[in-house]
Design goal:
By secondary structure, the protein is of the alpha/beta class. It has helices spanning 43-57, 69-93, 103-112, 117-120, 125-134, 136-151, 159-167, 210-223, 237-246, 279-289, 311-319, and strands at 8-11, 19-22, 172-181, 186-194, 254-259, 261-278, 309-310, 324-334, 347-348, 354-357, 369-378. It folds into 3 domains: 94-116 and 123-151, no CATH class; 159-259, no CATH class; 261-378, no CATH class. The strands form 4 sheets. Strands 6, 8, 10 and 11 form a 4-stranded mixed sheet that branches. A 3-stranded mixed sheet has the order 3-4-5, covered by helices on one side. It has a two-stranded antiparallel sheet with strand order 1-2. This is Baseplate protein J-like domain-containing protein.
Length: 380
């Protein structure tokens, strides 16, 4: 740093009361030539630039050799400028995610855009830094994963977005969205088939079934969310889905959830069991195939909305079971006296938002029932 000039007190005219301070300012620095290349970044560039300036300022010197003191100083300055230039490049590189190399910088930039790599890999921050230093390929993988996460569309905009957003939730098997004019604004309505085919206002069980618990755990791990359905409070499916959708709908957009139309199916089957198989084991396998479990023919997510139900699907699934020798369909119709038996045609037509159910609950006959008659086989 240049020293500050010292002021001098002067008395002009011989008057002791007429003194004044005078400051001699330093000489201005030499003007920077117009041909200075500000893009110079390395030792050779700085050295050549300063030697060229020396030759311009002192034209009487015809030759400059490495032993000259001026050349030594030029090379010392060029070395320092090269170091400073490299330091500047390193500091600027740490400011962007694409060029940052230090683990702490990459981690800070990823957290700035909402991606916590330590939480993603379930490590402490110190362990994450050690992992990245030992495995630069994992650092690059996490560097690329962060922007992908923030570019993922999680806001429901179109009708397809609303349906896809709900289908992604473990409590939903099928969803269909449509728009309806209310007289003042457009309202989006979504018909939903829940995980067990129950109505939206049915309370959740106090303890989640194992299969649902696994699906929820996997879903929450993928979403990176800490929310858990309050099973202990027995909320309805509608409340859980409404809270889930509230964070993803557009501001000012009304979204209403509707129950899909469950169609009860009355099914009568006569099954002949092979002689070397136990009847009870075959019956359990048949009921499992005809149930609403993940592999069952009445699983709520097996058929799309309004997709017809065919008897051939039942024949194919049952004849593939071990111990089943013959299958006869004796009853195949919608629940209710006004609907005809379709066992001859082998097809029950569904439409709109309808889907088939066959709960076999005597308290709810409208949701269908199964009459199973087994012949042959071993008792036990």
């Amino acid at each position: 740093m240049a020293e500050l000039p010292r002021p001098e007190l002067r008395f002009d005219g011989g008057c002791p009361d007429c003194g004044g301070r005078r400051v001699r300012m330093p000489e201005p620095p030499p003007a920077i030539p117009d041909d200075l290349d500000w893009r110079t970044r390395d030792f050779e560039g700085f050295r050549a630039m300063m030697l060229a300036d020396l030759a311009r300022r002192f034209p009487e010197r015809g030759d400059w050799n490495p032993a000259d003191l001026e050349v030594v100083l030029v090379e010392v300055l060029a070395t320092q400028l090269d170091w400073l230039s490299d330091m500047h490049d390193r500091v600027m590189a740490e400011a962007t995610l694409e060029s940052a190399r230090r683990p702490a910088s990459v981690d800070a930039l990823l957290r700035m855009i909402g991606f916590d790599a330590a939480e993603h890999r379930q490590l402490s921050r110190e362990a994450l830094y050690r992992l990245w230093r030992a495995r630069p390929d994992l650092l690059d993988a996490d560097r690329a994963e962060g922007p992908r996460r923030i570019r993922r569309q999680e806001r429901a905009v179109t009708l397809e977005d609303h349906a896809a957003t709900l289908v992604a939730h473990p409590l939903v098997e099928q969803a269909h969205a449509w728009s309806r004019w209310t007289g003042a604004w457009e309202r989006i309505e979504v018909a939903v088939i829940c995980w067990n085919g129950e109505p939206l206002d049915q309370p959740l069980p106090a303890v989640a079934p194992p299969e649902l618990a696994r699906r929820l755990s996997r879903f929450l791990d993928e979403q990176g969310a800490e929310w858990r359905p309050p099973f202990g409070e027995a909320p309805s499916v509608r409340r859980v889905l409404r809270d889930y959708l509230e964070a993803r709908r557009l501001a000012g957009q009304e979204v209403v959830l509707r129950d899909a139309a469950a169609v009860g199916i009355v099914l009568g089957l006569r099954v002949t069991v092979a002689d070397e198989h136990f009847r009870s084991e075959v019956e359990a396998a048949v009921r499992r195939v005809l149930g609403d479990g993940p592999a069952g023919l009445f699983h709520p997510g097996r058929l799309a909305f309004g997709e017809d139900l065919y008897a051939s699907d039942f024949y194919q699934a049952l004849m593939a079971l071990a111990g089943v020798r013959d299958v006869c369909l004796t009853r195949f119709k919608r629940a209710g006296r006004r609907y005809p038996d379709e066992s001859r045609s082998g097809r029950i037509a569904l439409s709109g938002l309808e889907f088939p159910v066959c709960d076999g609950d005597p308290a709810r006959p409208a949701r269908g029932h199964l009459r199973l008659d087994l012949k042959g086989g071993l008792r036990g």
